């Protein structure tokens, strides 16, 4: 269907009215809910450290007669509320990494009005005492860094509709993060290849492509934070954002859980069609040696059979299988020394990758990936300082094959034949990192200094083969042929050293600065880069209710190794024909050429050689955070970034010779305004509302389009347009709300502009437009999940039954568009995922 401007305006107004109605209803439910009385035997524990600062993220475990009854996690205010089955005495164990595990006994009494208040002091361990002066005084915002990351509460994220199974699947809950039409993560308008993914401070992105891949299971994660251009010098290898996660340590008691053990079945015409989805997750943790050695394991099997609703059954199924395991051992050698070892393994298989209306099963490839990361972290307290040594190895192997051997045919109405490329590779990265935090220094204020170094060695070995490609018009006449010569063997390696220093300087109790610099190199690029950064935190009043933050800095991408395999890729020979079949150009062979950057940037030292790339961005932001009420916090943020020397591939012709030039002529400009509010100060009764206004405009001839895992055969002329993940307006509301009788409601409402797309011509090249950016229609989805816990076996265990609904209003969110101007249906949007219901079943032991 073709969407007219008037219809889209009417639809937008209707969606805004629906969204406003939903927000009002949620607000009324919340306001009504905060007046409900707590359970008559609820206990409110406030956990603080020795300086009376709240301790968030502490695990509270309640036992009676040696049997585990309840567990909870303290919120940002150090508060955890547990509901007990009866009045009487209970044993409580409170633990958190960096603190001494504390056990106490409470005497719960019945109350018909308010929860029983109990305060507990959690002593800091010797290993992390040197950090108390800076990090433990949470009531003073100037002790915190100038970069305030968006934090995702893991337990709240796990309750969200869709029950996200991995770390990366939770990221779209962050206001500035979306999943693009191809499934990749977009942060502040940039693709995931421009961001860093850190697990326990280790870079786990694919060394060859920079992609995130299949991340660790969500059940293994303790904290998740997303920072857009953070100004701390310890972070590198990004121009957009940093996703950082810390994993869980095993507790003092053995615990296990089995989530979603039963598969979902497909039903068509009231007939059972077999298993559709399955995502069982098993988690096990506990002490191997109490007080010394702890173990945790999170494993999941992920099976998804996705139906493409624009294709007929059963030719519309694409299948994904994966096994995802994360194992961790924590050894407390002494009160001043710990050792952590972890291993993440994630084999994954895709059938008919990228299946859609324009690329049906025969023209899609199958793919297999095997990702693994092994990490050893040693922490040693020396005097009042902390030395952290990290050794890690990441390996990613891939094998991508077409369904058959044959030509790929590109046409305005859709593609046919066989996928054109086959590739296999093995990439690995070794990392050695040292970080030293001395004790707090006192000189014209307080200084928390951090010094560090990084040494990384990477390799990428593989081959790329290609089959012929034909470009036809709508009547099936040959317009252009592409043949390939050469086998495309490549073997490249790289060394990336870096050193950094940063200082969190607090000249007064109400003002702090983060001042730092990072010096890094990448031998394969023949460049050395300096990255100065500075941020500030200002508390205009003595109370911590208002905080102003800001900063400016220089950031650099790490150039993926696939870039330097380009010279060894097969060469294209292109022949162009007229409608009668006569040759009008060619055969013209295009040589793969690595370009050279001659642009000057004062913080980069380059050698005058080919491939001397250093993609960078200069970004700054300012934000104001205000705690209006104990249950209401608001944040306003403005961010601006300019990225230069972005990697592109552009075609050029000199006489009869053609060239594909891999250079750094690309740029991207981003402006983003965010409004974020948190409603509620209890994690089981809390909502998050955000609005993001974004502008992201840049070059579209990104080199990864041809050098990634699933390349497109046509190297298109460069144009300027909106980036694939740009969302001018996005409203997002989600949260968790506890209802009576152990019911929990988790709604998620999203209203946003549609993703941008580009017109193409009969030769599959981009068509530059002079009018507004072409976009999909406005997107609206109302999702919700309702769960209930059933206590079994005398209160020792629980069973959770959950039901979810997606796109409750059945709103038309098109999946495809006829974007080729030679297509008779040009401009028509079609396909939709209609209202969907799912049921989950979890065992909590």
Task: Briefly characterize the structure.
5% of the residues lie in helices and 55% in strands. The chain is built from 4 helices and 50 strands.
What would your notes on this structure say?
- There is one protein chain.
- By secondary structure, this protein is mainly beta.
- Helices cover 5% and strands 55% of the residues.
- It contains four helices and 50 strands.
- The strands form six sheets. It has a 22-stranded antiparallel β-barrel. Strands 8-14-15-12-13 form a five-stranded mixed β-sheet. Strands 3-2-5-6 form a four-stranded antiparallel β-sheet, with no helix packed on it.
- A hairpin with a 5-residue loop joins strand 25 (408-410) and strand 26 (416-417).
- 39% of the residues are buried.
């Amino acid at each position: 269907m073709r969407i007219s401007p008037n219809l889209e305006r009417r639809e937008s107004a209707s969606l805004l009215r629906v969204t406003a109605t939903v927000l009002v209803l949620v607000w009324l439910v919340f306001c009504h809910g905060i007046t409900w009385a707590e359970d008559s035997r609820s206990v409110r524990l406030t956990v603080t450290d020795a300086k009376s600062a709240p301790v968030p993220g502490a695990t509270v475990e309640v036992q009676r007669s040696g049997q585990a009854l309840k567990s909870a996690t303290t919120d940002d205010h150090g508060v955890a509320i547990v509901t007990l089955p009866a009045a009487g005495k209970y044993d409580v164990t409170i633990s958190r990494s960096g603190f001494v595990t504390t056990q106490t006994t409470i005497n719960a009494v019945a109350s018909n009005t308010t929860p029983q208040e109990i305060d507990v002091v959690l002593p800091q361990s010797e290993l992390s005492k040197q950090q108390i002066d800076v990090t433990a005084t949470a009531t003073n915002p100037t002790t915190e860094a100038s970069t305030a990351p968006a934090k995702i509460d893991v337990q709240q994220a796990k309750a969200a509709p869709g029950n996200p199974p991995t770390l990366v699947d939770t990221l779209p809950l962050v206001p500035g993060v979306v999943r693009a039409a191809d499934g990749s993560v977009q942060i502040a308008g940039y693709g995931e290849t421009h961001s860093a993914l850190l697990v326990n401070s280790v870079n786990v992105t694919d060394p060859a492509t920079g992609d995130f891949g299949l991340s660790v299971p969500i059940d293994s994660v303790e904290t998740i934070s997303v920072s857009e251009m953070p100004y701390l010098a310890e972070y590198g290898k990004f121009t957009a954002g940093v996703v950082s996660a810390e994993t869980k340590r095993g507790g003092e008691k053995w615990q296990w859980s089995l989530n979603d053990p039963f598969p979902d079945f497909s039903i068509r015409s009231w007939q059972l069609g077999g298993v559709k989805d399955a995502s069982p997750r098993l988690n096990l943790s506990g002490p191997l040696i109490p007080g010394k050695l702890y173990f945790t394991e999170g494993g999941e099997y992920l099976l998804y059979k996705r139906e493409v609703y624009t294709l007929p059954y059963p030719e519309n199924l694409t299948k994904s299988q994966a096994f995802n395991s994360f194992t961790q051992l924590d050894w407390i050698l002494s009160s001043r020394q710990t050792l952590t070892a972890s291993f993440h393994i994630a084999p994954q298989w895709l059938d008919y990758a990228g299946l859609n209306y324009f690329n049906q099963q025969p023209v899609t490839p199958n793919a297999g990936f095997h990702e693994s990361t092994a990490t050893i972290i040693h922490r040693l307290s020396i005097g009042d300082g902390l030395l952290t040594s990290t050794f890690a190895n990441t390996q990613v192997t891939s094998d991508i094959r077409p369904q058959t051997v044959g030509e790929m045919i590109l046409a305005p109405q859709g593609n046919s034949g066989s996928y054109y490329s086959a590739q296999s590779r093995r990439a690995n990265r070794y990392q050695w990192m040292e970080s030293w935090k001395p004790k707090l220094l006192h000189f014209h204020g307080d200084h928390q200094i951090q010094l560090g170094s990084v040494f990384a060695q990477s390799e990428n070995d593989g081959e790329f083969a290609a089959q012929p490609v034909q470009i036809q018009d709508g009547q099936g006449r040959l317009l252009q042929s592409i043949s390939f010569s050469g086998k495309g063997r490549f073997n490249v390696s790289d060394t990336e050293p870096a050193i950094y220093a940063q200082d969190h300087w607090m000249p007064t109790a109400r003002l702090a600065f983060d001042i730092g610099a990072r010096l890094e190199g990448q031998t394969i690029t023949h460049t050395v880069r300096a990255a100065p950064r500075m941020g500030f935190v200002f508390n205009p009043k003595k109370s911590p209710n208002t905080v102003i933050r800001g900063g400016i800095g220089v950031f650099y991408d790490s150039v993926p190794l696939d870039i330097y395999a380009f010279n060894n890729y097969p060469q294209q020979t292109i022949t162009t024909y007229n409608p009668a079949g006569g040759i009008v150009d060619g055969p013209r062979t295009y040589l793969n050429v690595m370009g050279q950057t001659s642009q000057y940037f004062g913080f980069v030292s380059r050698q005058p050689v080919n491939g001397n790339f250093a993609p960078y961005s200069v970004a700054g932001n300012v934000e104001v955070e205000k705690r209006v009420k104990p249950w209401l916090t608001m944040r306003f943020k403005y961010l601006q970034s300019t990225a230069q020397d972005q990697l592109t591939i552009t075609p050029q012709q000199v006489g009869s010779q053609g060239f594909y030039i891999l250079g750094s002529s690309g740029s991207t400009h981003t402006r983003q305004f965010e409004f974020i509010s948190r409603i509620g100060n209890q994690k089981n009764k809390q909502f998050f509302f955000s609005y993001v206004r974004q502008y992201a405009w840049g070059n579209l001839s990104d080199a990864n389009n041809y050098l990634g895992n699933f390349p497109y055969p046509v190297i298109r002329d460069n144009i300027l347009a909106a980036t694939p993940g740009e969302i001018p307006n996005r409203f997002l509301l989600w949260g968790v709300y506890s209802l009576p009788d152990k019911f929990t409601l988790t709604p998620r409402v999203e209203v946003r502009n549609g993703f941008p797309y580009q017109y193409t011509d009969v030769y599959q090249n981009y068509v530059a437009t002079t009018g507004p950016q072409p976009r999909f229609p406005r997107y609206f989805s109302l999702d919700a999940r309702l769960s209930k816990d059933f206590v079994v076996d005398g209160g020792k265990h629980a069973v959770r039954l959950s039901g979810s609904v997606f796109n409750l209003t059945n709103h038309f969110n098109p999946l495809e568009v006829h974007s080729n101007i030679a297509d008779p249906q040009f401009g028509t949007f079609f396909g939709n995922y209609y209202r969907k219901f799912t049921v989950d079943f979890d065992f909590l032991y």
